[in-house]
Amino acid sequence: MIAVSILKRLLMAAITLFGVAVIVFVLLRVVPGDPIAMMISPGASPESIAALRAQYGLDASLPVQFLVWLKAVVVGDFGTSISLRRNVLELLAERLPATLELAIVALLVAVVLGGAVAVLGTLLRRTPGEPVVDTVNGLCLAVPDFVWALALVLVLGVAFPVFPLSGRINPGVQVDFATPFYLIESLVTLRFKVFADVAAHMVMPVLALGLPLAAIITRVLKEALLEAMVQDYILLARLKGMSSLRLVLQEALRNAIGPTIALTGVQFTFLIGGTVIVERIFAYPGIGNMAIDAVINRDLPLIQGLVLVFGALFIVINLLVDMLVVAFNPRLRHG
C-alpha cells in the first residue's frame, strides 16, 4: 500500500509539472513583445534577426517549439539564457542554493519564534499578558514580507546600520567556496568569521520572510494547544500535579503539532515565492532576484527554467509535509 501511494504521488507530481510546463510555455509566447528584438542592435539586418531567431528555435510553430523544448528538458537541457548567454541549468545551479539557504533559515526562525510565542500565549491564557501577545502577533501577521524588508532596511540598515544592506557576502572577504552553500560550508569547515559575515547578510531578509510565517504558526498552534488543553487526558495529568509548562510541552504539543505542520508546509511554499521581492530589495543573489531580471529581459528559456524549478520545489515540499503529518499522527501512520 505504501509503494502504491508513493507511485500515485510521483505520477501526480509528473502530471503537475507537465501542466506547469505547458501553461508557462504558452503564456510566454502569447504575451506581446519579441525577446530577439531586445538582443539586437537597432541597425541589424533581417538576415541577422532570422538567424538569431532560428538559433533559439523561435522560428518554428508553437507545438514544434514545445516538443523540442520538452525533449531537451527531459534530458536536462534547459536551453541557453537569451540575456545572459549562459546555460540555464548552470545559472539555476549557481543561484538556487542561495535561495534555499535563505528560505530554510527563515523557516527555522519562524518555527522557533512562532512555536515559542504560541506556547507563551497558551501559558498566559486568561491573563493580562494574552491580549499583548495576540496584538503583537496580529501586527506581524498583517504586515507582508516586502513591507518588513523595507522597514528593516530603514531601521537596521540606514538609521542604525547594524547589518549589511545587500549581497550575500562582503566582497572584501577572500575565500574560495567548494560549494554554493556558503552558510553551511563555512560552518562545517569551521571558518567562523566567514560564517558570521554570511549570516549577517542573511539577518534582514530572513526576518522579513520569517516574521509573517511565525505569526501564522503562532495563531494556528496556539488554537490547537488551547483545544488540546481542555481534553480529558490533560485534566488527568493536571490532577497528577504536572506544571502548566510541562502540560503544554509534553502532553498538548504532540497532539497539536499535526495541523500546524500541514499549514506551515503550505505557507513555506508561499515563503519561497516571497523570496522574489525580498531578494530584490536586498540585492540577494538568489533565483528570486534572477527571476525579476529574466522577466524584465523577457528571457524565455530562463523564465521557463525558473518556473519549473519553483514548481518542483512546491511539489517536493508538499510531499515532505505529507510525510511529516503522517509521522506525527499515529492514526494516519497505522491506517
TrEMBL record:
GO BP: any one term: transmembrane transport
Keywords: Cell membrane, Membrane, Transmembrane, Transmembrane helix, Transport
SUPFAM superfamilies: MetI-like
InterPro entries, per the entry: BPD_transp_1_N, MetI-like, MetI-like_sf
Domain of life from the UniProt record: Bacteria
Membrane topology: Multi-pass membrane protein
GO cellular component, as recorded: plasma membrane
Compartments in which it is found: Cell membrane
TM spans (from-to): 12-31, 102-124, 136-160, 202-221, 261-282, 302-328
Keyword Cell membrane: yes
Domain ABC transmembrane type-1: 96-325
Pfam families with a match to the protein in the record: BPD_transp_1, BPD_transp_1_N
CDD domains the UniProt entry points to: TM_PBP2
Family, per entry: Belongs to the binding-protein-dependent transport system permease family.
Protein name from the UniProt record: ABC transporter permease
Native organism: Metarhizobium album
Organism lineage string: Bacteria, Pseudomonadati, Pseudomonadota, Alphaproteobacteria, Hyphomicrobiales
